[in-house]
């Protein structure tokens, strides 16, 4: 299959060469590598942000990155990049006339908008990955993109429900989880230095929805245990961060400040060693999440205590690879932590089961197979026939963009 991967804002080439890459650009890079490994031909299209980057970079046979000129040669945020999506789409449209792919896979709604506009005069099926709905002012365009493509990938059942509420047809939604590098994240390898206490690790943001508040509150009821928090700002920026100050004050009020360590942002390359140093990884988010941190922990053979939301509810099997707790329930979170920290045998059994589950279900080669099935479904004649007419979608998107520009 000939696949056009569109990642307008995030250059996967940098992720392939950067051990500290994470997030959406790493997802696109790893998925592309896995699809290439299955024998598919891939071209990844991204906006050129540096004049030193060549137009095309061949990574391997049948795998290349194309830097599309559209707008200034520098990184642009979402608000800035919108006005250059038309130029990006026009460049792709010219390419499709001579070298049309079998399927287009767009990442984030900005890429989806470019894909829909570029393929408006073709019958090339488009598959969209949102990587989380932005909402707010972007809702209208997210809806139009979802209705104008042949297929949409959701990372969890909860995201699939959100897409259906947005207006995407259920028949076009395929649920495919995020993947994890099971070679990089494995039980074997160095572990970060730790003190004599048991260790609970959490990684992510510091906002109230990220659940660090609940973990600090729960820690007061879990003795002889330290909490290590990775994420948020860089280490040097933490003192001026409002969320960090709020959490430090909370730790002081609960009398656990001496058992809570804030590391700031940890390079992705250092995360395997940090995870291996933990007895339990906690993912107490209260909102929808893809659950990537839980997958990385499970791949390292570390059990997870997680909120039963989004991808966490599906990746962590309660009582097998970890424990589920309701979000924003510190007392129940403390109970779950005590249950695992106080039982070495159970923790080891869960860690082994977690490692097995990631290898079977979440390794990138398995995820790539599921993505190919979604491509094949989107390329079916009955799906193409049901896809909205390109001219209709194009007209609505142009109106939405014009309204967005006037609002600014």
Shape: elongated
* Number of helices in the DSSP assignment: 17
Helical amount among residues, as a percent range? 40-55%
Oligomer type: single chain
Largest sheet: 8 strands, mixed
Strand content: 15-25%
Number of DSSP-assigned strands: 14
| Helix/strand structural class | alpha/beta
Distance between the termini: 41 Å
Q: Looking across the biggest beta sheet, what order are the strands in?
A: 3-4-2-1-5-6-7-8
Q: Work out the radius of gyration.
A: 22 Å
* Low-confidence residue ranges: none
Report mean pLDDT, rounded to a whole number.
Answer: 91
Task: Give me the secondary-structure topology.
Layout: E1 2-6, H1 12-17, H2 23-37, E2 41-47, E3 56-60, E4 63-68, H3 78-81, H4 85-98, E5 103-107, H5 108-118, E6 126-129, H6 139-147, E7 151-154, H7 157-166, E8 173-175, E9 198-203, H8 212-219, E10 225-230, H9 242-253, E11 260-264, H10 271-276, E12 280-283, H11 292-299, E13 304-307, H12 310-315, E14 322-325, H13 330-341, H14 344-362, H15 364-378, H16 381-386, H17 390-407
Parallel strand pairs: 1-2, 1-5, 2-4, 5-6, 6-7, 7-8, 9-10, 9-12, 10-11, 12-13, 13-14
Antiparallel strand pairs: 3-4
